[in-house]
Structures are given as C-alpha cells and as structure tokens.
Amino acid sequence: xxxxxxxxxxxxxxxxxxxxxxxxxxxxxxxxxxxxxxxxxxxxxxxxxxxxxxxxxxxxxxxxxxxxxxxxxxxxxxxxxxxxxxxxxxxxxxxxxxxxxxxxxxxxxxxxxxxxxxxxxxxxxxxxxxxxxxxxxxxxxxxxxxxxxxxxxxxxxxxxxxxxxxxxxxxxxxxxxxxxxxxxxxxxxxxxxxxxxxxxxxxxxxxxxxxxxxxxxxxxxxxxxxxxxxxxxxxxxxxxxxxxxxxxxxxxxxxxxxxxxxxxxxxxxxxxxxxxxxxxxxxxxxxxxxxxxxxxxxxxxxxxxxxxxxxxxxxxxxxxxxxxxxxxxxxxxxxxxxxxxxxxxxxxxxxxxxxxxxxxxxxxxxxxxxxxxxxxxxxxxxxxxxxxxxxxxxxxxxxxxxxxxxxxxxxxxxxxxxxxxxxxxxxxxxxxxxxxxxxxxxxxxxxxxxxxxxxxxxxxxxxxxxxxxxxxxxxxxxxxxxxxxxxxxxxxxxxxxxx
Length: 499
What we know:
about 500 residues, alpha+beta, Ubiquitin-like (UB roll), DNA polymerase, domain 1, Enolase-like, domain 1, 5-stranded mixed sheet, 18 helices, disordered C terminus
C-alpha cells in the first residue's frame, strides 16, 4: 500500500492498536497511563531527565529488530507509528516468571521505595538487547545515567545489571520472529494525515512528501526526536496546531561515509551516529557525545535536530562547526548547502526560509595533520546542560606551525559561534607557549558571555581560556610527556576557573 491513510498503527505488548482520533501531541506516557491503565510506567520529572517513564520501542530496521529505551513522557503517541512498545507489564514471561533483569533486581536488593524501579528495569533490558551498550569501562554507568534513584545509591542496581548480563535468553528471544513479522506487516509506505479538533498530524513517508507538506503548511512543526519539542508541550504548555514527525523517513536516516566527508541525515539519532562521528572526529574518546543527555535522549534526539533548534548551548553544533561541517537545506525541490556556522543568525533566528527544512549535515574527513578536541563543562558530569562547550580543530605541520585553526564555543554567545580573533592568533604561528598566551588573550575579545544560573560571565571567560591551555597540554609539543584524561581535564578546567 502507498498513498495516504488516516490512522496511526502500532503494538503495545502483543496488542495491536489503530488510532484515528489521537491528539497530535498526546504523550505516550499519558496515553499508557490514562487510556490503557498501564500505570507501571511512572511520571517523575515529565521532561526526560529522571527515567521513571522509560519504555522500550522496538522497530524493524532492514531485517533486524532494534530495541531502544526512550522516555515516554516526551514521546508523542503518533511517533510510534509502525513500532512495538513494551512496558514493565510486558516483562514477565508467559509462564509468569520474572524477566532475568527483574530477578536480578530482587536478588541484589536493587529496589527500595520502588518508584524508579520500572524505569531502571526497562533501561537494563534494553542494555541486554543492544550490542555493546553495557560493555566497557563506562558501559553500565552510561546505560543507567538517564535513570535517577533517591534510595539505593545505585550499587545494588549495578550489581543487578552485572548479574543480568550473565543470564541466559529471555522470552523475547523466542518471540523475535513473530515480532519481526508483525512489524513487517505494518510497513505500507503510506503517508499518515489526521485532522481533528485538537490539531493536525502529518507523518510523511518520504522526504519528497515532507517537502510538499512544508510548502503547503510552512508553519507546521517538524518533530524529530521530541527531546525539545516534547518539553514545549509538557512544561511550556504550548499548543502545536500541526506537527510533522520525520523519524520514519528512510531518505533522512542515511549515514554515509565517503572519501571526503561523513553525511548524516536529518532523522539520524545521536546514538545511531555515535560510532561514525567518533571515527571521523578523532580524540582520545567520545566523551562529549556520551554526555549528550542520556541513552534515552540519544535514542530519540537527532544530530540535525540539535542543530535546527538553534540553541546556544546545544552540545553538537560547536563540535561540528570546529570540524568544518556544512548543512544541507531543502525547500520543495530547491536545495542549498551552507557552512554550519552561517545557519545561526541570532538567538532564536536561523537562516531557514518558510517551508525549508534541514535535510542533513556533512562533516569533512580530517587530514592526517589535523587534531580535533572538544570538552564539555557542566555542574554534573551526566545528564546536565553545558555551562560552556569548547571545540577545537588544529592543522599542525611537521615543524609545529599551525596551518589552520577552527575554534568554536557554545554557551559563550547567543548562538554557537567561532572565535575568529583566537583563530587569527593561532594561524601561521608555532604551537608554543607564546602562541598559547596570545590565544588566551584573544579569546577575551571574541566573547562577552552573560551570567545566568549555569555560570557567571567571569567563569565562562576564564574556563574558555583554560580550555585553550588544556588543548595545548593535550596536543602541544610536550603532550606525549604529560597525558591527561578528558574527564580529568574537564574537572581541572572548572577548578582552575575557581582559582
């Protein structure tokens, strides 16, 4: 089937649902609790921070089932078209036995008051299903960073996850073929269009359909992961008359590595892009990307959505600007490409015409003499908005001369922005302490940051200069003799700012 249909179709557990009158911004959390009586999914913060509302969304991508933990409080029901949702009520096996994660939580005393427990269980089940998610030095910590608990101190929950990772198959493994078959039957290639008293919902099947929709309705709100837009509804109580979810558009889900650049489509999530970005933006690890929200947020939020919302403190844009990224925009059949930094005009203003949308972003492959570094400074290590984020790209010749420099910051101005005077102080000079000091002085001329709840202007200016020192320590002429971990560097930059 192709063409248009007028309902949203998905599964919750093994129950099939067809919704023809759903409010476009009805959240999955409210629908589960109020319409279906599935109250195991809890409302804690209602803004995607605490993880109490975590559910699993299973999709068929190609011929493979992909399991993702997401925050139900900021996902709209309409975004689940073509998916299967699993809640805590689905975790018991058909014979009534507990899921291995639930059993581990019992064995390791991982629950006290119990309010947060369903969300933890769902994140942990997803961790068992996702290849490599709970592996490595920080694996379990990363997996649980989006779930908050006030009782246990986390140690018994971590022990439970270690036990669960050693357990055998669960009942979902036996159901995998049936799940794949039912999701395959939901693929009909149709564009969804639903209008009612609460607003209009359009889910385009293709990028061409999206372009046509936005030409006809330029005020329609594109929704990629809803990690921002969801809060407009739950916290800002905004009314969105027409929303256009794009997460299922295959044309916008491309990740392509060419000889000269990496292309990331507008519907690609941070979690999906993480490996490719880490490969093309080499630094000791992907510390910045793993600190963008939580697993639940990265499973929903997109790289291009983080750009298109125009936030001055988005973590992605400064890194991509420093890397020389270019943004691809489309309006109808007309396409154009601009330098990413030129997209941001002023606070809340971007270079995007009515009906125009971000189609993707390209990041150049860095040359062998280019070093790229980025550091995020925030009050908490996990799940916090940046006070400042500095990103740096230096091309250094064999004799130690800086041939090219791109320096970008978030949190220092009304938009993510390059530090032009700092770049000028670096280019054409030897990368030594004299050049470092000139760059530290120049950065004070590049920005006049504000004071807000996250940091004072003095703190931001001081940390920005200290990050240049951190860059010098990391890739200057003496770097091999004084290695510093990224985590230590972030902490040190803040301590130095406090004197």
